[in-house]
Design brief:
Strand order of the largest sheet: 3-4-7-2-9
Radius of gyration: 17 Å
Largest sheet: 5 strands, antiparallel
Strand content: 35-45%
Shape: globular
Distance between the termini: 39 Å
Helix content: 10-25%
Number of strands: 9
Number of domains: 1
Length: 197
């Protein structure tokens, strides 16, 4: 219970900090539609690396296929799956966003009786920079934990998730902050790889 309350408190603080940062940079923060297209593990990002991401982070916004293929994603996704992922993005009207978590299945943040067995995106926010030249994208990602007794899921190490959002008509799109939270879920099968092929 204490851990749950702590996680909830940290999540709320993160959301508040994003809101405050957003208000300082703009006057219009909005939640936008997204579509998850891939969930993977064993992300092979190494810092520092030029990924088109913000602050040398693995979490980024990719505006064309060339930037994706020049990033750590090419090392972390099979060639067939990467082609499938790229075929799902119309880069004339959309961008690809990625969010990754780097932790072992048994994290110091969690007790030994459960493990990371899934990852999902809860929400995606976008706002304009103060000079109106950039569209800043923030992502709220959730780690899903299950009991070690669950035989329908396996531990995920360094999981990552890819989603598609619409490209803003004006201004460059860049990755801003993020919120990471966690929740315990039921022992049910969890799909990784290409989603809705």
């Amino acid at each position: 219970m204490f851990h749950y309350l702590t996680s909830t408190f940290v999540m709320l603080l993160s959301m508040i900090s994003i809101a405050i940062f957003g208000l300082g940079a703009c006057t219009d923060t909005k939640s936008i539609k997204f579509k998850t297209i891939y969930i993977g593990e064993n992300a092979s990002w190494k810092s520092p690396e030029k990924t088109g991401a913000h602050h040398n982070s693995p979490n980024g916004v990719f505006g064309n296929s060339a930037s994706v293929e020049a990033s750590w994603l090419k090392r972390s996704i099979s060639a067939d799956d990467l082609r499938h992922v790229l075929s799902k993005v119309d880069f004339n009207h959309q961008v690809l966003i990625v969010d990754a978590r780097f932790e072992e299945p048994h994290s110091a943040e969690r007790p030994i009786f459960d493990f990371v067995a899934g990852i999902s995106i809860e929400d995606v926010y976008i706002y304009r920079s103060s000079d109106n030249r950039e569209n800043i994208v923030d992502v709220w990602t959730v780690n899903q934990y299950v009991s070690v007794d669950c035989k329908l899921r396996k531990p995920l190490t360094n999981p990552f998730i890819l989603a598609v959002i619409e490209r803003e008509k004006v201004g460059e799109m860049k990755r801003g902050g993020y919120t990471h939270s966690s929740k315990t879920v039921e022992c049910k099968p969890f799909k990784t790889g290409v989603i809705n092929p």
